[in-house]
């Protein structure tokens, strides 16, 4: 099969690789209907995470089950499935509590590299969710988005305790931040403030349900949020970047008693204890337990009440994955979809 590997920062190649096989009896092998490049793929691409050897890339996937191991019961060959980037058993206490991304037996579903024609998914029963029949091809980008960016934005909103009538601020205008806006709308927020200074992203944020755009960032951004909320700060803030600056901007934008859901993968973030103590906010974040939300998200996509696939503003054949990375790195694209 063809699959993408990163060799060094800035160096992504699509090469001939071995087809994945069933290794454990709980595995499935799927044929990707579509795959994509994640904002978090840019960390190694930019050299912020080290690349020590050629590494298969991609962890977002939707496609058709080709083969299952002898112990797989809930999905079968021919099913169209969506899964989380973290494979989970679905049976341990952590999974049952809804934190499948920290399952006691968690495995990285992207280990084999989902930017490819085929992918081995471990713990298939606890990880994959089948759609209701074969989806309309037009729904595939949205189903793919559910695998990570939608599920992650959704978790950010749930972790930030978004509820009807609340004011929500979203820090970060990447695909996850934009889909956190959509999640906040679906969860009934009254006011949704998207913090973005990029015009095409502002436009998409408004389409997804943002009521206000704030272009200032850092302390100025915080001051704007306070000004717009009677001096209090937002009830709910979703952090979707993962830097020191974005995390502090999120915490400072929340009112005392408010909630911060942080879903940007943290890189070098250090929280000052005294400021945190007096901020008096709830903090919940981490790798999103996408699996918790998948059945609901798939239904909302199938009945066309949400269209998260709009975050893909660049579509390329898999063989041009390198250009897909470059376009996202240079912020020419929000998110690149790759057709295998
Ligand atoms: Zn588990």
Write a compact overview of the structure shown.
This protein is of the alpha/beta class and 340 residues long. Helix content is 30%, strand content 26%.
Say which molecules are bound, naming each kind only once: zinc ion
The gyration radius over C-alpha positions equals 19 Å
End-to-end CA span: 10 Å
The low-confidence runs, each spanning 5 or more residues with pLDDT under 50, are none
Q: Characterize the main sheet.
A: 7 strands, mixed
Structural class comes to alpha/beta
- Proportion in helices: 25-40%
The share of residues in extended strands comes to 25-35%
- What is the tally of helical segments? 12
Shape: globular
Number of strands: 18
Q: Give the helices and strands as they follow along the chain.
A: EEEHEEEEHEEHEHHEHEHEHEHEHEHEHE
What's the overall average pLDDT, rounded? 97
3D structure, described in words:
By secondary structure, this protein is of the alpha/beta class. The N and C termini lie close together (10 Å). It contains twelve helices and 18 strands. The model has no long low-confidence stretch (mean pLDDT 97). Zinc ion binds at residues 88-89, 91-92, 94-95, 103-105.
